[in-house]
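Field: COMPLEX_INPUT
Field: COMPONENT_COUNT = three
Field: RESIDUE_TOTAL = 1167
Field: MODE = joint
Values follow.
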Amino acid sequence: MSDQLSLRGMIPHLALPLALAVMLAGFSAVEPRSLSAGNLLNVLEQSSYLIVFTLAQTVVLLTRGFDLSVGMAASAVSVAAALAAVSFGGGAGVAVALLLAGGIGLVNGAVVALLRVNPFVATLGMLNICLGLSSTLSGGRPVTGVPDGLTTLFYSGAVLGVPAPVLIAALCTGGLALLLHRTVFGRSLYLTGGNPRAAEVAGVRVRLTLIGAYTLCALLAGLGAVMLTARTGSGEPSLGGSLTLESIAAAVIGGVSLRGGAGGVTGAVLGAVFVTALSNGMNLTRVDGNVQMIVLGVVVVAAVALDRFRGSR
Amino acid sequence: MADSHNGGFTPGPDGPGAEAPPLLMLSGIGKRFGGVRALGNASLTLTAGSVHVLLGENGAGKSTLINIIAGSFGPDGGTYCLDGQPVRGLTPQRARQAGISAVFQEFSLAPNLTVEENLFLGRERHRLGVLDRRAMRLRAQAVLDDLGFDISPRQRTGDLSRAHQQMVEIAKALMDPVKVLILDEPTASLTEAETERLFALVDRLRAEGVGIIYVSHRLREIIRLADRITVLRDGCTVTSIDAAGVTEDGLVELMTGRKMEALYPQIPHAPGDALLELSGLTLANRTVEDVSLIARAGEITGIAGLVGCGKSEVIRAVYGLETVSSGSIRLKGQAYSPSGPARALTAGVCYFPSDRVAEGLALGRPIRENASMAALDRQRGVVRRGQERSFIKATMDRLRLRPANIERAVGTLSGGNRQKVMLARGLTRPTQVFLFDEPTVGIDVGAKAEVYDFLRDLVRDGAAVVLVSSDLPEVLHLSNRLYVMHRGHIAAELTGADITEAQVLACFFQEDVA
Amino acid sequence: MSVHLPSHHPQPQQFSDRLMLAVAGIGLLPLLLVALVAVLALTEPRFLGAVNLLNILRTASVLAVVASGQMLVLIVGGFDLSVGAVVALSSTVGATAMAGVAASGASPALAVTAGCAAGLGAGAVVGLVNGLCVAVLKVSPFMVTLGTMSAASGVALLLTNGIPVYGLPDGFVSGFGRAVWLGLPSALVVSVVLLGAVAVMQRHTLAGPALRAVGGNLQAARVSGVAVRGWTVAAYVGCAVLASLTGLLLTARIGSGQASLGGLNMTMESIATAVIAGVSLRGGAGRVEMVALGAVFLAVISNAMNLSRVDSKAQLVVLGVILIAAVALDELGKRRRVRV
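Field: COMPLEX_OUTPUT
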């Protein structure tokens, strides 16, 4: 029976890479360019942004939570960081970004953990607040004139030929993997999501864990916002538009459970790459942008249905 | 009418030649849940106009069997005949249409609905979907009045006390004409007076020709009501006997398959210092009032009482899960104010909840993580996986976990193994005071004995063990000192030879005495 | 031996307790709304103007209909992120069909009928998919409706390329959408009728207790013979149909089908309205009257902020804070009640 279990245990780990390979093969049949080294590197670089946001979302999803505000928080952080960077230099921009993001996360966490507000509502409220903040700060227009230093550091730079965004995403991935599996905080995230009541009864600091999770989530999203700001060279109030939902979709496609306590870094990264590769492939094969929305929708539902199937075993 | 049924009933096991087919006949019923066998070979024959008691220990398969009878689960194998006709694909709705009604321990009531809405749930009176609210209200009132229940049909069910919810549950089962009524521990939350009223109701239904399946642990009730007794052990029907002339001791022997004493280990008590002292403890929600007790090192302190008497709340309060409004707690001689589980664990107190699914375990996570959960704060921020693995492995081996793979998800384990994972927590950090809340609920006999051995070892090593249990033989046999609680108060403290069933029962029902 | 009888219903003695009970009886929302209206009436002369009041009610009515649909889904313990997209879908599908039939020379009446049927049908299909995925495949409502949201707005955009669909029959636009009945905008009258229908359904039909039982205790509902799956699907379809009707009403008023109607914003507002109206996110509770009040409450607040020239961006912040505060208060109230 344990053989069966392990075999069954393997399937989820194999399904996504397999789907990814099949998808890439399909796209290359239609458009040979999609498998070129240049494009693959391109996909990887594009993915790095979504990877950071998906990791952020994963932290919260593990606790049986949700963060609907990551996208809008990213917008607000982008605008605020750009404003600070324009006036006081890149360092100030990064500092403001982390402070603001940390503050947003702290509030989310406190509202969820201490006021016991449903995470959906808490972060929905925060979404509104961030939306108001970013459009007030920016007046609805991009904040231009971000110093080159920031752009080099977070976008155009490279170490040993590895582009900065890829490097940052890799560092985040590795760091989070260590955090989840090697620290008490990481373990607490899983246990809190697995059964919050039981974790509390067993002496796990559930409230602190939740506050930490939302804060970490927002900090990662803030980092992602700085990366995107560096890429466009401007603070964009419209930056976060679809990031929230994409990050949730990517995490869930990667096997992070909405019921909490299950999933990991590998899945989240694969999910993010999958979603990015899907839209990249559809762009190359000139699939209408609206059809792309439909396809993404279907993929999301199918992925969750599969997750449910796995969960019911 | 009742006589004629009894006439067909007394001659013994129904052979193929019996004239009228029995109301309900199950044979060879089996049922598995995942890897766990709940029923192996269960049989039951119910005749109309009789009370058939289903007897067995926790985990013997009683609730699985009644769920199969009521159509909630489908059996994996065996035959199910109603009125001599084989039945297949039974659902709760079809069972009810066929006249099979069940009152389960887990209430089938929606707390957010009114009493009346719950009574008619799934069978509302309506014309083309438009509810006939007046007719339903009148009927609901009539049924409640007829049963002598003092409940308003318009009350929100979730606002009722547990006893009143139990009554609504019974009323709901009797809304339509019933042939078979299943009662699962119906008196668990009732007072003595309410219990008497229920017995009168059972007598009346029996006289009307209803076949009643009655599940209970209370020996007295069984002797009072039963016409026939079927005993389940480890998922199989062991025997089915006529109830005339059985005694309480006989019942215990039937149920456990051994003399009452054999199941329980000899525990050498060596009472030492008082590690836990409560004085005048009163909780904010008034479930516990003015409770004083002492638990000493090297002995088991039992707390017995009926469901809802506040016995669990006492130890939950010590662990910081209930709000204390007055009174004081001393731990190892020091003043102690409980503020939550984390603080309690640091102080050397560990609590083992009765509801292991809700409060004990993260079912999706591996055994290793669940077992080390209570000791996370001792890891200084970083989890050393190798160390953790070998330590938990050793601990689980000591508790004789089988199979011994500690990376399996806890959700795949049986009740007994789950409890072992819980018990491991007590060994992962220095702990002197162990609080057990119904430690053997839902686990099989074998695992039960292992839990008792675990308690014995703890006591031998000089820990103070507080055992809260509704399983009377268990607290009677294991406790060195026994407190009996009644309605939030300590009704008696018994020691040594005074710990007898008669003494305890007298305290349970002291209301009549007072 | 003395026996203490614990009283199950302690009498409220302190004034604050009695106040709490009174508030619990009527609900906080109506009291807040009355207070808000009173303050505005005293401090802002323009507030009580007929045009202003009608504006508020018109805004509120659209929101109330969508939110009442959202309420149905919330009652069964679900969630619908796709309502906004369904509004856009029914608007574009309905308008495209209507304009197409009208252009083919058929009678306006036929065109309007066909258009409305197409719009409602498209919405209902989305609701059906949502309901079936949730009830049968047991997929998380959040993810299902996230997917159908994406798909439905994709279809709406694909159909129109983002360009408004004109060419609707005059009878639909000026004869219905912009008509004034009984001195009120037609959309307001229709909305009130729809809300009334939902209220009657909740109170006087099987759907009332069935939906609440599904959300309150799924197992109990199943054991009691409630068709749990059927009612879950029905709730999602009902929600989508109400959203589609809103889409058609908006289409008639604007005079064109637009993929930009509704959207995620309306979804979020519908959830906010329902939550403020005391619809539980855990399922099992929710009354359409309160949802209507919640919609009016939000419309009044936004109107007040407009009148006092509060920046529209700051308004978003206020809405966010109100939402969180509403739920936090609700939670606090529950914890208090448990302690009593």
